[in-house]
């Protein structure tokens, strides 16, 4: 089971940044539906017999290599991820990304080379301070003359009070310390370290069916489980073989 505090240190990070004004939107799915979309070597983590898929819109801020300053414009941008929760045969629990939507082409090119499914998209965020309401909008753009038109997310989020003691499921779906990717026929994992998520209650009006369907998932049913966080400071370590 995941823990609120990172179980490891990233002593020599390869990347530093802030995940800011992030909303966790989660829907449950039959476990076999999600398992069919995973690569060899990963097993879906089910909770009470159901798998969970998250859509997480947020802002990446001050993305940089340790020892170097953030680059204006390139280093701060919004992102929208679609993810699920998995483990390897040795029990390592982490995130598998179905897509990562991003507006920065240099960032996309670098991370697609590492096996992460980045897609080019127009993304906008609007935040009412002190964080009582956040609006997200994304629309996928064609890359190399090809693309999924009409794929995107619209979400209006109302932020509620701070959660002082997150439940077991909320921790399991938010506090994840490894991310998996597949490259050159091998499964890789990247360690992450950050402070515990400051989670808030939240409600949302969401239109994200097209984004989930573009990832091979059925359109979700029912309202999502919603949590909001003002953000955390993140240290990412180098990729290493998984399993």
TrEMBL record:
Q: Where are the transmembrane segments?
A: none
Q: Which domain of life is it from?
A: Bacteria
**InterPro entries given in the database record:** ADC_dom_sf (IPR023375), DUF2071 (IPR018644)
Database matches in PANTHER family: DUF2071 DOMAIN-CONTAINING PROTEIN, DUF2071 FAMILY PROTEIN
Report the protein name in the record: YqjF family protein
Protein's organism: Georgenia faecalis
């Amino acid at each position: 089971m995941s823990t609120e505090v990172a179980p490891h240190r990233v002593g020599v990070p390869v990347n530093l940044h802030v995940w800011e004004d992030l909303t966790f939107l989660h829907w449950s799915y039959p476990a076999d539906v999600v398992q069919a979309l995973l690569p060899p070597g990963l097993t879906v983590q089910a909770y009470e017999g159901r798998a969970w898929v998250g859509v997480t819109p947020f802002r990446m801020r001050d993305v940089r290599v340790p020892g170097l300053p953030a680059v204006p414009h390139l280093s701060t941008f919004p992102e929208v991820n679609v993810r699920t929760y998995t483990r390897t045969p040795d029990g390592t629990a982490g995130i598998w990304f179905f897509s990562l939507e991003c507006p920065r082409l240099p960032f996309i090119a670098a991370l697609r080379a590492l096996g992460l499914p980045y897609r080019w998209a127009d993304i906008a965020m609007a935040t009412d301070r002190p964080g009582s309401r956040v609006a997200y909008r994304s629309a996928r753009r064609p890359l190399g003359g090809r693309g999924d038109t009409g794929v995107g997310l619209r979400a209006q989020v109302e932020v509620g009070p701070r959660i002082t003691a997150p439940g077991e499921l909320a921790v399991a779906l938010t506090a994840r310390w490894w991310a998996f990717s597949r490259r050159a026929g091998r499964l890789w994992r990247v360690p992450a370290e950050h402070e515990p998520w400051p989670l808030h209650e939240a409600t949302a009006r969401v239109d994200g069916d097209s984004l989930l369907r573009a990832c091979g998932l059925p359109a979700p049913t029912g309202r999502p489980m919603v949590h909001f966080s003002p953000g955390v400071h993140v240290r990412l370590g180098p990729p290493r073989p998984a399993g």
